């Protein structure tokens, strides 16, 4: 017994300091690599968020509005209104899917709004954090969104760095902070969580971590319906990999099987509870006027705006102008992205997300928000911006951050309906 103890003690005494030294060195390397990304994103978001709150408080219109529809006692209360109100209701009370007709309604809106239109992952994490921390549902939802936004920034950096190095990745993370619609990133909405899952799922595909990609895509499908674009992108990339390698690989097949289960499972559950397998889509159309119309409304918006009219469905001139400019910017960036020859997962994901958003009848002003998940569009811009010195890059992004308080935050929440 004493011999064994004698043998063990020197190893333990020697190993512990070495382990501590290795862990410390690893943490320092991680901080040096990722610290600038988190710092740049955080500072830019704080600038935009401060301007957003200042504009809300200066206008003061929120004080006279219904707390459910863009109002509240404080400027920050606005961040949990509209869809945020629904997410809090789900977190507090769960779901009761139903298709209830509005008595006597014959126009566009014929059904009462129901929480089943909102996917479950974000309110579930909101409730989990609330139960674990003691924060209220609003505070928990904001915590989830803010943390997820930083996770998304790291993912956008990681994906972009594969094309243009660390400086391009840094620029892309900065663009994520100031992009049109980025005001949703720090709010009680599901965008940040969805994009964090989507970007890391794409990164997992690009690095051949298929099971990780499948699980992340499964989770994304529980968060937003546009995850169908991510599912399709994973399937195309997996089939391409199987065809190119001409060898037996189980992981891509498993990923393809897992990926759609979250989205299809929720839609089938809602349909079953409603007694109509297409119940989710009936609810979206009847209660919110959202439906896939193959781009008819988008064409109507652009043809009307081109001659200075705002007489189309769901018109909000200021918000719609920002959305139209975002669509035009996306159209300009797509050829530049394709020129970089990105992996199929990024190309398919981006093009399908664009098609789903622009092919739908909806409040057009929200397009700048709905296109926020198209993070691959940041890549060509970021690759160009990497040639700038760091002070110049920070100055340009800082100016955009100040402006983003208006075009990416205030316009959505106050000049329109997010």
Distance between the termini: 71 Å
H and E order: HHHHHHHHHHEHHHEHHH
Give the overall form. Answer: globular
Biggest beta sheet attributes: 2 strands, antiparallel
Q: Biggest sheet: strands side by side, in what order?
A: 1-2
Spans with pLDDT under 50 lasting ≥5 residues? 1-11
Class by alpha and beta content: mainly alpha
Provide the residue-averaged pLDDT. Answer: 93
Radius of gyration, in angstroms, nearest whole number: 23 Å
Q: Could you estimate the helical fraction of the residues in percent? A: 55-70%
**What is the helix tally?**
16
Strand share of the residues? under 5%
In total, the number of strands is 2
Which properties best describe this structure?
418 residues; mainly alpha; two-stranded antiparallel ribbon; 16 helices; 69% helix; globular; disordered N terminus
């Amino acid at each position: 017994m004493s011999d064994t103890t004698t043998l063990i003690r020197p190893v333990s005494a020697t190993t512990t300091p070495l382990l501590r030294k290795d862990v410390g060195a690893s943490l320092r390397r991680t901080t040096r690599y990722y610290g600038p990304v988190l710092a740049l994103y955080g500072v830019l978001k704080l600038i935009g968020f401060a301007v957003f709150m200042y504009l809300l408080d200066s206008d003061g219109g929120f004080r006279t509005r219904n707390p459910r529809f863009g109002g509240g006692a404080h400027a920050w209360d606005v961040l949990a209104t509209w869809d945020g109100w629904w997410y809090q209701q789900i977190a507090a009370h769960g779901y009761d899917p139903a298709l209830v007709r509005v008595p006597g309604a014959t126009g566009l809106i014929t059904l009462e709004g129901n929480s089943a239109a909102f996917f479950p992952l974000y309110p579930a994490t909101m409730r989990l954090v609330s139960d674990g921390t003691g924060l209220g549902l609003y505070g928990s939802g904001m915590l989830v969104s803010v943390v997820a936004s930083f996770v998304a920034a790291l993912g956008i950096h990681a994906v972009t760095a594969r094309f243009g190095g660390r400086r391009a990745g840094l620029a892309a993370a900065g663009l994520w902070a100031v992009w049109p619609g980025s005001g949703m990133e720090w709010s009680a909405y599901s965008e940040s969580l969805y994009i964090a899952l989507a970007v890391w799922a794409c990164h997992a595909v690009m690095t051949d971590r298929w099971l990780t990609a499948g699980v992340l895509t499964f989770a994304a499908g529980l968060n937003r319906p546009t995850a169908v674009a991510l599912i399709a992108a994973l399937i195309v990339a997996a089939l391409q990999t199987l065809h190119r390698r001409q060898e037996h690989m189980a992981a891509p097949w498993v990923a393809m099987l897992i990926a759609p289960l979250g989205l299809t499972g929720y839609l089938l559950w809602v349909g079953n509870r409603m007694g109509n397998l297409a119940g989710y889509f009936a609810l979206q159309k009847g209660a919110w006027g959202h439906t896939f119309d193959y781009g008819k409304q988008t064409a109507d918006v652009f043809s009307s705006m081109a001659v200075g009219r705002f007489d189309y469905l769901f018109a909000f001139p200021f918000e719609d102008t920002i959305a139209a400019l975002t669509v035009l910017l996306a159209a300009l960036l797509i050829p530049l992205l394709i020129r970089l020859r990105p992996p199929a997962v990024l190309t398919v994901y981006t093009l399908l997300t664009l098609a789903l958003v622009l092919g739908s009848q909806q409040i057009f002003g929200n397009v700048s928000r709905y296109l926020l998940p198209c993070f691959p569009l940041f890549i060509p811009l970021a690759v160009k911006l990497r040639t700038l010195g760091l002070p110049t890059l920070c100055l340009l992004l800082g100016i955009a951050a100040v402006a983003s308080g208006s075009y990416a935050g205030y316009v959505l929440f106050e000049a329109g309906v997010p």
